[in-house]
């Protein structure tokens, strides 16, 4: 591109002008002052005197911004101080200031630094060598001498003196003692009766001085080598009641809180000797050395006595100096700001000059860029129109896909509901005939059991199909709550205990921890573990073994749940397809729908977990669920988890495989027979084994060795009877009984207490706690066995009593005891929902805030019946009342009580009362 001649001439003149401006600014800048690095090796900076020294240095250094000041603190460690000095040498310092911790150990390294040609300033504590550049500090011998003369005048040249020395081996302590002793020698009436060593800090005085004062109660005055030691001496004297008799003199004379000047003004100590920290003088001497100006090798700081005669003057002077120092600091800050402003203005000037030059160059490119941009903008506008058209098409496709997805979901939901209605009509009469109907022939009971199992299986497939569709369209949310994963898995396994026992399969549970808090969605993981356990039970042969283990993976913040079986295993051909939907494998036996494992995988991934497996044909399979211990906040719910195991089933019993189910097999009665479960809680291993041996031929027996484990087993297994020792570790037997009776889950269980304490008042205490029987050791095993049978028979009678009360009038159950309160709440919930034909055991358990298994065990233990039978009984009892009302037809009564049809109502009513509803109405109307 050609530039017009006038424009080129102007640009040339502009560039020359900018160059001259930049040159003039560069010439105006002054050369910076030389930089210095000063290293300071401090023995400690923890006390007030050392802090004052460091503050003085920093105050003086504020006048020398070109100095790089580096501090290393040895904390009373000579070896560390030597190492730190060597570190300063490696860093490259121009001058070293040393305040030695101990003179002997530090002298060699100071000489080495001096011999290297680096100036050394000794501050406060001298070394044993003369190889140093300058010394700054007080004359400690003079300090001690001045203190001795002042003490002589204060005591009238007669009295007993105690000296609190500094750290042994330090030059200040040695010199001060030397000067003090020399001064006292001139006064025959003064006697130094004792000395106390310290480490320059107050706690050492508090620990050592009391014993010395008790040994020398005649002491008139204490001379402490610094004001901190003097304050400690005062505290000891006050503790011993000597604070009015003993005078105290210290050294340092620092201003500020708890400084020597304040201690004198407050009358805590009699006087203090000014010992200047020398921080300012050390920096001044160092700068004279570095700038090669005249300096003194020995810079001795003067001292003076500060007592009540001049303490106010000293305080005012120090406060005035502090105020002036603050003014100086403010002026320095203002000067620093002005310098920063000047530097920023210079920078801005450079930037502006460079910007002007750049603008001149960029202006030449703007015109060409403008033309290129116009061409590019036209192209972009065409592309934007094309993209907009494509976006509108994508949005239309997405909306159409959303509408189709919603339609599919509604179709599957409606289809599922249509399937559930006939399934309910099939299962209702079948359950009635199996539980409350007339006596059936074995073949009939077998056929009805076959119908119930397959209807339940069909309902399970419908539920799985619904879950599959929800996962497929993303309509299954995760609502996680924090709960005990161990208890959750154990409760699911309880449902599989009976069918596994019928087939002789050993069902083992091996959690690594008794409790494991995990964030999880109960409804999702319930389906995952139920499918895995159901699959394991299906493919495990009789007398096989299923093992469920839980292992926390704390470093990865994960938990691993494994389900291992000894079944047929998975063939190599099936392994690649085992998680595919509707895949049934090549095995000919025990085929399912092909949805269980696929559903478990989808739900596990939805829960941000992983599902894997290991299998060998003929040697079993292991499915591993790996879950995170915590879930993101958006997946959490504030609602407490309601654990409802076996969510696919309609009733309390799990559908067992056809090969393992016999006609007429139902839940064993927990009465006085061999199926009753007895829990033994005894901490003595021999007594525990003896009781289990005697009871096992007649009952099922589980054992616990302490009260806490016994309570946990009682809540988990709901035994029919508990035998408990009184003397248990941590939680006594009486406390166990009290907690059992207070918990409605276990309040109905009879408890027998065993104890070696046979006093009448102790037996009364046991009965008051709620025990049903109190036996003393040694006891007769036959008597114990017969007592347990009697208690179980009484429990059966109590069940009959509750059933009679409920059969006559459900409102008559008075909540006087825990069991009656439970039955009253249960009855109220059922009566409030009688019109709901879809009322299920899960709904009732959820209303009570418990799990399905706990509800079933409680109702079975108290009433000897299932929850479904209980609901049916309430409905039929209510039906007897409603049939007496002639204004209601039989069909209206049936629908009002939640029966799906009048025919099902008539069949159920006649099976219970041996008359039809119409016959019952005629009989009672005629009787009325």
State the helicity in percent bands: 40-55%
The CATH superfamily title of the domain at 445-658: Histidine kinase-like ATPase, C-terminal domain
Alpha-carbon distance between the termini? 120 Å
CATH architecture label name of the domain at 445-658: 2-Layer Sandwich
Q: Which geometry do the CA atoms define?
A: elongated
Please give the largest β-sheet.
Answer: 6 strands, parallel
CATH topology of the domain at 445-658: Heat Shock Protein 90
Portion in beta strands: 5-15%
Number of separate strands: 24
Biggest sheet strand order reads 2-1-3-4-5-11
Backbone CA Rg:
48 Å
Regions with pLDDT < 50 over 5+ consecutive residues?
A: 640-674, 807-816
Number of helices: 28
Category by helix and strand content: alpha/beta
Mean pLDDT: 81
> What is the CATH level 1 assignment of the domain at 445-658?
Alpha Beta
Pfam families: HATPase_c, HisKA, HTH_18, Peripla_BP_4, Response_reg
Domain Histidine kinase: 414-631
Modified residues (4-aspartylphosphate): 725
Organism: Hymenobacter sublimis
Keywords for this entry:
928 residues; alpha/beta; Rossmann fold; six-stranded mixed sheet; 24 strands; membrane; transmembrane helix; transcription regulation; coiled coil
Any overview of this molecule?
The chain has 928 residues and is of the alpha/beta class. Among the domains are: 139-273 and 303-308, Response regulator (Rossmann fold); 445-658, Histidine kinase-like ATPase, C-terminal domain (Heat Shock Protein 90), CATH 3.30.565.10; 677-791, 3-Layer(aba) Sandwich (Rossmann fold), CATH 3.40.50.2300; 809-927, Homeodomain-like (Arc Repressor Mutant, subunit A). It has 28 helices and 24 strands. Strands 2-1-3-4-5-11 form a six-stranded parallel β-sheet, with helices on both faces. It has a six-stranded mixed β-sheet with strand order 7-6-8-9-10-12, with helices on both faces. Helix 2 links the parallel strand 1 (36-42) and strand 2 (67-73). Helix 11 packs across helix 27 (902-913). The longest helix is centred in the middle third of the chain and has 125 residues, at 311-435. The chain is elongated and about 130 Å long. The termini are far apart.
């Amino acid at each position: 591109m050609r530039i017009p001649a006038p424009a080129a001439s102007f640009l040339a003149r502009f560039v020359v002008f900018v160059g001259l401006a930049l040159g003039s600014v560069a010439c105006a800048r002054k050369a910076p002052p030389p930089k210095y690095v000063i290293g300071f090796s401090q023995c400690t900076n923890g006390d007030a005197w050392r802090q004052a020294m460091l503050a003085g240095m920093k105050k003086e250094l504020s006048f020398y911004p070109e100095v790089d000041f580096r501090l290393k603190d040895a904390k009373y460690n000579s070896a560390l101080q030597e190492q730190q000095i060597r570190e300063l040498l490696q860093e490259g310092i121009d001058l070293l200031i040393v305040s030695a911790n101990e003179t002997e150990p530090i002298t060699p390294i100071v000489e080495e630094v001096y011999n290297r040609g680096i100036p050394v300033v000794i501050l406060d504590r001298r070394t044993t060598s003369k190889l140093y550049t300058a010394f700054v500090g007080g004359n400690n011998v003079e300090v001690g001498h001045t203190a001795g003369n002042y003490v002589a005048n204060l005591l009238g040249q007669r009295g007993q003196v105690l000296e609190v020395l500094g750290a042994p081996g330090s030059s200040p302590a040695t010199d001060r003692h030397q000067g003090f002793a020399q001064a006292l020698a001139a006064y025959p009436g003064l006697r130094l009766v004792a000395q106390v060593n310290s480490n320059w800090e107050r706690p050492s005085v508090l620990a050592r001085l009391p014993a010395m004062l008790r040994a020398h109660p005649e002491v008139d005055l204490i001379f402490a080598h610094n004001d901190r030691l003097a304050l400690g001496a005062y505290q000891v004297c006050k503790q011993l009641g000597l604070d009015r008799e003993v005078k105290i003199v210290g050294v340092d004379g620092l201003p500020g809180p708890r400084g020597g000047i304040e201690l004198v003004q407050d009358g805590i100590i009699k006087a203090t000797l000014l010992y200047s920290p020398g921080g300012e003088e050390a920096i001044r001497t160092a700068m004279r050395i570095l700038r090669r100006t005249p300096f003194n090798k020995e810079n001795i700081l003067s001292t003076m006595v500060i007592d009540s005669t001049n303490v106010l003057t000293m305080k005012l002077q120090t406060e005035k100096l502090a105020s002036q120092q603050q003014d100086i600091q403010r002026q320095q800050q203002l000067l620093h700001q002005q310098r920063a402003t000047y530097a920023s203005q210079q920078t801005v000037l450079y930037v502006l000059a460079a910007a002007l030059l750049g603008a001149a160059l960029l202006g030449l490119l703007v015109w060409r860029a403008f033309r290129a941009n116009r061409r590019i903008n036209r192209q972009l506008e065409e592309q934007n129109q094309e993209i907009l058209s494509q976006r509108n098409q994508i949005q239309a496709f997405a909306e159409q896909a959303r509408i189709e997805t919603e339609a599919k979901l509604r179709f599957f939901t409606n289809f599922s509901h249509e399937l559930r209605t006939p399934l309910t009509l099939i299962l209702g009469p079948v359950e009635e005939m199996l539980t409350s109907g007339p006596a059936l022939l074995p073949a009939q009971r077998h056929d009805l059991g076959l119908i119930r199992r397959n209807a339940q299986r069909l309902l399970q497939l419908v539920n799985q199909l619904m879950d599959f569709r929800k996962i497929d369209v993303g309509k299954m949310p995760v609502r996680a709550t924090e709960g005990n994963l161990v208890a959750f898995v154990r409760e699911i396994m309880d449902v599989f205990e009976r069918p596994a026992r019928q087939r002789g399969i050993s069902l083992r549970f091996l959690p690594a921890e008794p409790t494991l808090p995990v964030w999880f969605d109960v409804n999702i993981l319930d389906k995952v573990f139920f499918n895995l356990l159901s699959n394991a039970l299906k493919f495990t042969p009789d007398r096989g073994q299923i093992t469920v283990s839980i292992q926390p993976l704390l470093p990865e913040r994960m938990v691993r749940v494994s389900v291992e079986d000894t079944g047929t295993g998975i063939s190599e051909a099936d392994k690649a397809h085992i998680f595919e939907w509707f895949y049934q494998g090549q095995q000919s036996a025990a085929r399912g729908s092909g949805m269980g494992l696929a559903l478990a995988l989808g739900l596990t991934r939805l829960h941000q977990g992983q599902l894997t497996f290991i299998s060998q044909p003929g040697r079993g399979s292991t499915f591993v669920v790996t879950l995170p211990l915590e879930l993101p906040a958006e997946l959490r719910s504030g609602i407490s988890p309601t654990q409802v195991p076996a969510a696919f089933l309609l009733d309390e019993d799990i559908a067992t495989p056809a090969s393992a189910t016999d006609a007429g097999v139902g839940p064993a009665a927990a009465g006085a027979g061999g199926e009753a479960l007895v829990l033994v809680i005894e901490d003595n291993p021999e007594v525990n084994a003896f009781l289990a041996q005697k009871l096992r031929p007649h009952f099922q027996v589980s054992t616990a060795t302490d009260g806490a484990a016994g309570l946990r087993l009682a809540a988990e297994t709901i035994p029919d009877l508990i035998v408990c020792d009184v003397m248990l570790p941590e939680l006594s037997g009486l406390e166990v009984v009290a907690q059992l009776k207070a918990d409605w889950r276990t309040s109905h269980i009879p408890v027998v207490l065993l104890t070696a304490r046979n006093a009448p008042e102790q037996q009364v205490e046991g009965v008051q706690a709620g025990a049903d029987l109190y036996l003393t050791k040694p006891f007769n095993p036959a008597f114990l066995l017969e007592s347990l049978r009697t208690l179980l028979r009484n429990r059966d009678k109590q069940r009959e009593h509750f059933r009679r009360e409920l059969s006559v009038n459900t409102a008559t159950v008075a909540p006087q005891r825990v069991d009656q309160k439970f039955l009253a709440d249960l009855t109220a919930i059922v009566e409030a929902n009688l019109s709901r034909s879809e009322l299920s055991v899960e709904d009732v358990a959820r209303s009570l805030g418990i799990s399905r298994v706990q509800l079933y065990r409680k109702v079975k233990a108290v009433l000897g019946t299932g929850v479904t039978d209980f609901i049916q009984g309430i409905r039929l009892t209510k039906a007897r009342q409603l049939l007496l009302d002639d204004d209601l037809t039989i069909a209206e009564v049936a629908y009002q009580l939640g029966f799906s049809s009048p025919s099902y109502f008539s069949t159920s009513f006649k099976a219970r009362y041996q008359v039809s509803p119409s016959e019952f109405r005629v009989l009672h109307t005629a009787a009325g």
